[in-house]
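So, can you check?
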Amino acid sequence: MAADPTPNPHATAAQVEAAFADPKLANVLYHDWEAGTYDEKWSISYDERCIDYAVGRFKSVAGDQGWPYEHAMELGSGTGFFLLNLMQGGVIKKGSVTDLSPGMVEVALRNAKGLGLDVDGRVADAERIPYDDNSFDLVIGHAVLHHIPDIPAAFREIQRVLKPGGRFVFAGEPTKVGDRYARKLGQATWWLTTNVTKLAALRDWRRPQEELDESSRAAALEAVVDIHTFDPAELETQAREAGMVEVKAVTEEFAAALFGWPVRTFEAAVPREKLGFGWGMFAYKTWQRLTWLDERLLRKVLPRELFYNVLISGRKPN
């Protein structure tokens, strides 16, 4: 078996230029670039807060039967957020992380080791998963499908590596409508924050220009790596056409997304040290309350296509 490639967190200008015409190269460069700061950027942790979030997402689309799954693979694992928190939540015993980015696999394995979890990992293309047929009881992913150029090919590979009766669960994928309003909210918040903090009275709230420029370059690549948005019904059809059964998609976050995207963008645009524990608790508690509103009321009266996130699950036939 060939050795996995090494991380490349400092892409050359020529590599970045080439990436604009090659989504897979863009994914590698962007995520190697982000790997070292990704958990901080997205407020990812491996404690009760994120364990509850991950387990809650899993339950909402796949229920709580069949736990613990003996061996699960996370596709496009990033730093391991979904897999590691599900393992800590008792959903999974043994895990394997895979990602196109060597930097992300490296960080995910380091996180797993720090948590004392039984996890191995590979650099892997979701369209050509480097594992044998019938290898896993569960395949999972969070915010990964929208990065994969050929979704039908990925679903066929997922079906291949699952054991008969094995389940797949994907969460955190943007809907077509949700992505539209989230991007506009994010762009408006970035423009407003970076301009208001030019005022002398607010200069201490402005990140150094080189950091803002770096974020803008990353955002330009992010526009390349975010390939798809999804209609829930179309995503269900793609999974069924790959041979999956009992396929179901649900959506979440409407009010929570309208609040969350401006907050995340604001946090990325100002110095981290300006936002203390109080801010973090305010943002998290407000998001929790709006999520409760989404789940208890708005999900019952609004079309599922209007929500920001789509989650999907199904099984490989026995």
User: Anything to note?
Assistant: The mean pLDDT is 94. The longest helix spans residues 277-301. The longest strand covers residues 162-174.
